[in-house]
Design a protein that fits this description.
single chain, alpha/beta, 239 residues, disordered N terminus, five-stranded parallel sheet, Helicase, Ruva Protein, domain 3
């Protein structure tokens, strides 16, 4: 199966970002490598359980959740991804009922529903059942667990079963260039180091902004059938 296969989510169909994969994820913390290894142990109950990725915007939280869904789908395992902060989706606490039978459940921005009694009870019940079945749950949010405004005893009891992982947005030039190179390879072309360094100097150290520029360069290389050299990049960006 192609590594770019879209995952059909249950019970809603939510398209995953095309570039969300473990291959394109880069983190500055060495400890994240162990977490990534655990996330890819999909057939080992020892590595099941619940991870909570938290940190500022741009740290790669959504990327990891969607990469995990894609990884499971490629291996014919069930996965579901819910962006809980998306007001366009008809999400209510009952959406968690029965999800414990799914191999992988990813709840993005879960801290958005903390403090709401019905949601907390549904979440606590779901986490407990998933743990018994040995399935994996991935959560994301901006705040540390200790700062969650929990209002129910049910969820308080479940917090001890959640493994918090603090993610940080990429800041170092080396890591940012590496991330750009991995995204380029995923798209089918090479990004020389000097081009990556030039993009950082020309634009910003915000990975999402840099990926937009990379997308423009990808279109240019396809249209003109040329390699991504520094002179070519300068020419494209000067147009």
């Amino acid at each position: 199966m192609s590594h770019k296969t879209m995952s059909v989510q249950l019970p809603l169909k939510i398209n995953l970002r095309e570039d969300a994969s473990f291959e394109t994820f880069v983190a500055e913390q060495e400890s994240i490598a162990l977490v990534l290894s655990h996330l890819q142990q999909h057939d080992n109950a020892r590595y099941a359980g619940c991870y909570y990725f938290f940190g500022e915007s741009g740290a790669g939280k959504t990327h990891l959740l969607q990469a995990s869904c894609r990884f499971y789908t490629q291996r014919q395992r069930q996965s579901v991804y819910f962006p809980l902060s998306n007001s366009a989706l008809p999400l209510i606490p009952d959406v968690l009922n029965g999800l414990e039978i799914t191999d992988l459940v990813c709840l993005d921005d879960v801290d958005q529903i903390i403090g709401q009694t019905d949601w907390e009870r549904a979440l606590a019940n779901f986490l407990a059942k998933s743990r018994v079945l040995g399935h994996r749950v991935l959560l994301t949010g901006s705040a540390d667990l200790i700062h969650w405004p929990v209002v129910t005893d049910e969820l308080r009891r479940e917090l001890v079963s959640i493994m918090p992982v603090h993610l940080f947005a990429l800041q170092g030039s080396r890591e940012l260039v590496l991330a750009l190179q991995r995204h380029a390879l995923y798209k089918g072309f090479e990004l020389p180091i000097e081009v990556g360094n030039f993009l950082l100097k020309r634009f910003s150290h915000d990975l999402q902004e840099l990926l937009v520029v990379l997308g423009l360069l990808e279109q240019a290389t396809l249209a003109e059938k040329r390699r991504l050299t520094l002179p070519f990049v300068k020419d494209v960006l000067a147009r």
